[in-house]
User: What shape does this take?
Amino acid sequence: MYFIANWKMYGDLKSLNSLSKVIKFSNKHKKKRFKLIYCPPYTLLESFSKKIAKTKIELGAQNCHFEISSGPFTGSISPSMLKKIGSKYVIIGHSENRSNGETDNQINKKIKSSIKCGLKIIFCIGETITQKKKKITNKILRNQILKGLYKTNNLNKILIAYEPVWSIGTGVVPKTSELDKNISFIKNVLNNNFKNKSPKVLYGGSVNPKNAKNLASIKNIDGFLIGGASQKAKNFIDIVKKTII
Ligand code: PGA
Assistant: This one.
């Protein structure tokens, strides 16, 4: 199981203190089969990288530019810069960026450049509430997958994060049956169109210590992408505990 903390635009050097608890927890359960990955804002990547060195916790970034190494792109960060600073993962296609104008084509370019750099991708997909009401969720998910992963036939480096937009930060999570159905659908699309036969699909959207156990009972779920609840070490640890320990 993957547990990925997406800190979004939150956190400063002080918030790194909370990591000590998580490091202790991770060391204590070294033999258990789960992965903890932190995706803090760019400004904290280096400090995080130092703090989690020699632990099992891994580092990821929240976005990147599609240009692989460098160029005249004010305010942007390239995949190779992320790699050099110690990131192993990068989140791409988050709905908070899609809603700011990020296109499937840009997402596809970012994914390809990041893979070339040796990063693993946390590729976010998900329908909006309007799309859900129109009953076009499957069409939207298929489109996002096929466009985002266009000509990326090796999925070994890719984790899909299914995040219904209406669940993010709202406290509302899909019904177990709906989530089960959508995750199975995503796995089918991946299996039918790409070489890797066991793609990993995570769920994201209002995961917290109270709902984690129930969400994890869905057999197809390979982990969680966690926003708000990941900022407090106790909540993050509790989610892991409720799920697998
Ligand atoms: P949330 O965010 O857990 O705060 O809903 C999840 C995400 O946006 O990745």
Notes: Strands lie at 2-6, 35-39, 58-61, 89-92, 120-125, 158-162, 200-204, 223-226. The mean pLDDT is 96. Residues 132 and 164 are 9 Å apart (CA to CA).
